[in-house]
Amino acid sequence: MNQEENILGSEKIGRLIRKFSVPCILSLLVNSLYNIVDQIFIGQRVGYLGNGATNIIFPIVIICLAIALMFGDGSAAFLSLRLGQKKPEEASKGVGNGIALSVILSLVLCILGGLFLPQIINVFGCTPELRQYALSYGYVIVIGIPFMIIGTTLNSIIRADGNPRYAMITMILGAVLNIILDYILMYPLNMGVRGAAIATITSQIVTAILNVAYIRKFKSIKFEKSSLRLKLKTCKEIVGLGISSFITEMSFVVLMAFENNLLSMYGAQSEFGAEIPITVLGIVMKISQILNSIIIGIAAGSQPIIGYNYGAQNFDRVKKTLKYVLGISLIISTIAFGLFQLIPEKLISIFGSEGAEYTKFACMSFRIYLMLCIFNGIQIPSGIFFQAIGKSIKSVILSLSRQIAILIPAMIILGKLYGINGILYAGPVADGTAFIISSILLAIEIKTLGKKSEKDKMLLVDDTSTDNKLTKHVVITIAREYGSGGRYIGRLIADKLGIKFYDKDFVTTLSEQTGLSEEYIENNEQRRNTLDALNNGYYFNLSNSDELFVKESKLIKELAEKESCVIIGRCSDFILKDNEDTINIFVYSNMEDKIKRVVERYGFNQKDAEKEIKNIDKQRSNHYKHYTGKKWGENQNYDLCINSDALGVEKSADLICEMIMNR
User: Fold this and answer.
1) Helices 88-123 and 232-268 meet at what angle, rounded to 10?
2) Which of 312, 389, 499, 522 maximizes the CB count within 10 A of its CB?
3) Phi/psi at 643 (nearest 5 deg)?
């Protein structure tokens, strides 16, 4: 067990959270302030129409960020996975493909943005009064798209290479340069919104150049030009690993598209007009994002602590960490709530002084739209808590429910009923509903925390003979359909050949090496739900399943090198594909026989048995395809595919043993 794992289980929780949270908070705050700084200068020098224009262009920026994070986080996860498998050459190719994809797509987006910007801004609710400012600002921003995407992609890869300090420095330098150039271009040179856009892309260019320069300094891989040559399989895996980040950002784009158009429509019917609501609510959301950034950073800092101690079955420490995070988050959200309710006019004045109607709507927006922002101190940490313990479905529900499932429908319904006021009240409706959902899920999880499920416990023990009957080193991997008897066949093979059998023993060994509980490993390995793609970590680049796969791959290789053995599942056929002394078996059976076996062994009724078989086989198939890029159960992946009920499990084991002995 390494030093970090030791401190995760023993160090003071407050000290650990500070260690892990501060870098994350700084990173998120820099991103948030990056977007706000332009609006402060524009509001002071140009006015609210200029700020409204930046809110029209902002979704384009988020689309580019979504793509950059997809390639960056995907490449970073690919890098970590391949290094964990001791495959630095493949890791280098993954990084190169991620960079190449970011270059190609960023150039395509730059060209499309330049050609179709007038049409694009219409989609995001641009009004005639905002159009001139939006085009002036937007055309410059479009020029900087390649630098933004490439720089952000590399930022994620640099962090995964073990140099988060360098990544942070380049980001902060860009943000500071943006502030300096904003002042120069908008005050002495009086260049208006175009000056703010030039300041933004100049800082993005500098960040991109610094990050590109790092390519020669990679510590974990040797990067070569050939790594940039695109390979379809690698590209698909990178996109799959990064899709979580893409969907999260794109959900915000969808929200802004709906919001701007609804604000334009209902604002035009109100005393405020269309432009004031678009401008003000955009600013309000960005200010609230500062609050969310701090809470996300704190909660993300707790993720490795909660994940480790949950895995180690130290549930008291999990509860203490969660209580600590919720307490701090609630204090911060309460302070923010007080500011939004008591001094909204002072907050909006930072972005320029306008007329009475502008200030009136700003105060309404802060006080109504952010009325229940205090609940963010519960909802946001809850989502990250479920992510940390590997409950991907609950995590995704909490992460996306507010923006997509609740806020957009609430805006549409309440807007139709109450006009512009209805749009504002959609905010507390979404916050309140998300709070109720997260509180219920969190309460249930805490109540059941630590209770073990016996459903997956096998009736067989893993004890095997060690009277090795083989004359040379052989490793047998067995993949199997659930209920096919494949595990029992593997157990018989090991016993007949006098070699070690690794399945439950494998879990025990992995638990001893990592400090993770056997329950945690069993619940997170060899299975991949559809929603696991959305469960990448906030702080680390790997999901719970990814980290387990890295550790299991290392252990499988160590065991295979040390002794002849039988290994059940865990993509072991793929992990050991370069080993000449490996024999790969796939065991299958018809549904009727599988149902009968599952009913007898696990006490299911027939209907539930069939459902369980289909569910687990689907998860195993997803897991295999995700980590190998191949189809689970396809005959060319194995040396032998056998129907366990054609001969029966005993004779199937005898047949396999005979093949191994005569090979």
Assistant:
1) 20
2) 499
3) -85, 115
Cα first-last separation, the chain: 39
Ramachandran assignment for 349, one of left (phi > 0), alpha (psi -120 to 50 degrees), beta (any other)? alpha
Q: In this predicted model, what pLDDT tens digit does every residue of 24-83 receive, in sequence order?
A: 788 788 877 877 888 999 999 999 999 999 999 999 999 999 999 999 988 988 898 888
- b/e map 527-551, b = 16+ CB within 10 Å: bbbeebbbbbbbbbbbbbbbbbbbb
pLDDT category, 564, cuts 50, 70, 90?
Answer: very high
Cβ pair 531, 398 in contact under 8 A: no
pLDDT, tens digit (0-9, with 9 covering 90-100), for 233-252: 999 989 988 887 788 889 88
> Residues 6 or more apart from 88 whose CB is under 8 A from it?
82, 220, 221, 222
How far is residue 636's CA from residue 571's CA, in Å, rounded to a whole number?
Answer: 15
Q: Which residues pair with 640 in a beta bridge?
A: 585
CA angle 280, 299, 438 (to 5 degrees): 75
pLDDT at 345 over 80: yes
At residue 543, the pLDDT reads 61
- Per-residue DSSP letter, 629: S
- In this structure, the dihedral spanned by the alpha carbons of residues 154, 159, 162 and 165, taken in order and rounded to 10 degrees, is 110
- How far apart CA 81 and CA 23 sit, in angstroms, is 23
Question: Region 370-398: what's the mean pLDDT?
Answer: 86
How many helices, marked H, and strands, marked E, lie in the chain? 26, 5
Q: Is the pLDDT of residue 424 over 70?
A: yes
Can you tell me the mean pLDDT for 586-607? 90
Partner residues linked to 586 by β-bridges: 479, 641
Give the rounded distance of the alpha carbon of 228 from its chain centre: 25
Give residue for tokens 């969310």. 292
> Are 62 and 253 a contacting pair, CB within 8 Å?
yes
* C-alpha torsion sign, points 6, 523, 538, 212: positive
A 10 A CB-CB count for 172 gives: 14
Residue ranges of domains in the chain, CATH in brackets: 33-268 (no CATH), 287-451 (no CATH), 475-662 (3.40.50.300)
**Angle, helix 128-143 to helix 145-160, in steps of 10 degrees:** 50
Question: Do 39 and 203 touch, CB atoms closer than 8 A?
Answer: no
On whether the CB atoms of residues 21 and 298 are closer than 8 A, the answer is yes
pLDDT tens string 457-500: 443 445 555 577 888 899 999 999 999 999 999 999 999 999 99
